[in-house]
Structures are given as C-alpha cells and as structure tokens.
Amino acid sequence: METVSLVDLRDPGEVARIEGFVAEHRGSLFHRPAWLHAVEQGTGQRALGLVAEKCGSLTGWLPLTDVHSPLFGRALVSSGFAVGGGPLAERESTAKQLCRSAQEMAVRLSCSGIELRSGGAPADWESWDHTHCGFERALADTDEAELLAVPRKQRAEVRKSLDLDLDVSVGSGPQDRAAHYAVYAESVRNLGTPVFPRSLFDAMLDRFGDDADIMTIRHRGEAVASVLSFYHRGAVLPYWGGGTLAARVLRANERMYFELMLHARRKGCDSFDFGRSKTGSGPYSYKKNWGFEPQPLSYARWTAPGATPRDIDPTSDAYSTKIALWKRLPLAVANAVGPHIAKGLA
C-alpha cells in the first residue's frame, strides 16, 4: 500500500534519499532539497515536503515552501523562489495523491492555497499554460559554432561586445557576491520591483557549491552586468542576473550570456536553459532573438474554500502604480526596504 507523509528535512538520511530520488527521476533543480534549504536559510520561509512510499521505497516527492507574508498572505508553493517544482512521481496517481495531501496540509496551516510551478495537478485544480514560456537549447561544440548559432542580428550585437573594453570574471567569493548584488539590486529597482535579500543568494551559493557561480562583466573596473547561475543535469541556468543603465550601451548583457555559454561548455554542460519569461514580454522577445524557441510552461493552483488566491504577478494591473513609484525610489531606500517585501514574493 502506498502512503504519503510529511518528511523531516532536518534528517540528513532523508535528505540524501530524496536527492537520490530526484537524480534518478531526472527532477529539476527546484526539486532538490538543497533548493528548499537555501530558501529557508536565506529568507526564513520554511522548507517542507511530502513523500510517497511503498514497501519502504520512495515513489513520489512534492517539495514545498511555506510562504508567509503580511502583505501577500500565506501559501504552500512548489517550489519557493523557483520557476519549477511540483510533484515528482513514478505514476500519475501518486502525483495526484501528493497534491491531495498538500491540500490537507494547507488547510491545517491556514494557507490561502497551493501553487504548483508545474503540471500534474488533479483535474479540479485551476491549470493553465499560456502565461509563461521556457527557453532552452543545446550548446555548440566550439566557441565559433556557438557564435554562429546566434541569429544574425543578435550575433552582430555579440560581435560588437567582443570588441569592447570589457572584463569577464567568474567566482563565488566575497567580491563576486558584492558586485552581483549591487548590479542586480540596481537592475530590479529600475524595473520597479523589490530586490531579494542578499542572504538568499549567499545561501544558494553556499548550498550548491560547485553547482553555482557568478559571472560579472566589468568596464574599467566597474561592474555593469552580473548573473548568478546554476548547473544541473548538464544544463546551465542563468537565474538571477541584470545590468546597470550603462550595460545597454556597452552591450554587457550580450557579452555576459555569450561568455556564459562558453564557460558552461567548458564545465561539461551541453545545454543552456535561459529560464522563463512572461509570454509576449520584452525578455520573451530578447530570448527569441538569441535563437531560443519558446516552450509553454504549465502551472496549477488550488485555492482553499473561502480564500482569495495570492497575486504576486508584477504585470498585474494592481501593481502598475506601485511599480512606477518604486522605479523612482533612491537606490539606497529601495535596497533597504525591498528585501523585507521580496521575502514574501516566493
């Protein structure tokens, strides 16, 4: 008989067992307990998870983050601060059973509902696949072939960036972390959204070790673009990246992503996962310009009886005025206030 239970993620043996299950079943980066632990360490949002077992063997796993925010309410998210997650199971029936057990947990915790960054939900949950797309393609075998794989117009921009006075560095030490956070914080302020706490990035780098690093582009010693990337199952995932206002003229982002492709291949990767973007958005078009084909992503949610679903979509009409105001905040103010808000945007 198959059973579902709450797992103790403080038990190293259980964590190792789940990590093995994720690897064996080709789960995503966001299925790994290491991701949940880093989120908890960096933001205080609690790491949880449900496991399905039969005769002592794992048959399913649902990673969960208990997200609690005074501004955005409380919800179970799979997975927090991720673009993936959801039930990982040997059978569809097991995935559904994990979701039903999560419903019971959500009610006990007084959550407004459950958010899955994946498909696999029961038929009576709300599901959709039209809001976001993922972008991934294979890496080329040589540097020149990588450049030729980029469509002509974007390739011209990359070539221009290669002729500019830009320095490239990769690492995860104190200087790398400080430069990345300064660039990223300015970038998201300019977009009108609060920055995540630096402790989240530190926790990710500490937890993932050689499976994460920072690439920074500098012009005359000044960091102008930077990205924190992960390496998982042969793919590089540039995850938290951005550029200063100077980056556009310097084509620093073009240089950064091209150099990351080369760096990832040298690390043994064979694919580049450009992440998700809102369908039809500027980043969506930018990734298409690089030659990536959009693939619709499936999402699902369950809302507790009488509750209102969380709204953390920055493109929502409810946030347009707030975004405009946030863009005008002094950077020091945005960096001081933003992390306290962003902890609830998992």
Task: Reconstruct the topology from this structure.
Blueprint: E1 2-6, H1 12-24, H2 33-43, E2 46-54, E3 57-69, E4 73-78, E5 88-89, H3 92-108, E6 113-116, E7 126-128, E8 132-138, H4 143-148, H5 152-162, E9 167-171, H6 174-191, H7 198-208, E10 212-219, E11 222-232, E12 235-243, H8 246-250, H9 252-266, E13 271-278, H10 282-289, E14 294-296, E15 299-303, H11 320-327, H12 331-342
Quick recap of the structure?
This protein has 346 residues and is an alpha+beta fold. 39% of the residues lie in helices and 28% in strands. Helix 2 (33-43) packs antiparallel against helix 7 and helix 5 crosses helix 9.
Mean model confidence by pLDDT:
94
CATH class call of the largest domain: Alpha Beta
Total helical segments: 12
> What proportion of the residues is helical, as a percent range?
25-40%
The succession of helices and strands, N to C, reads EHHEEEEHEEEHHEHHEEEHHEHEEHH
CATH superfamily placement of the largest domain: Gcn5-related N-acetyltransferase (GNAT)
- Compute the number of strand runs: 15
| Strand percent estimate | 25-35%
Poorly predicted tracts of residues: none
Structural class of the secondary structure composition? alpha+beta
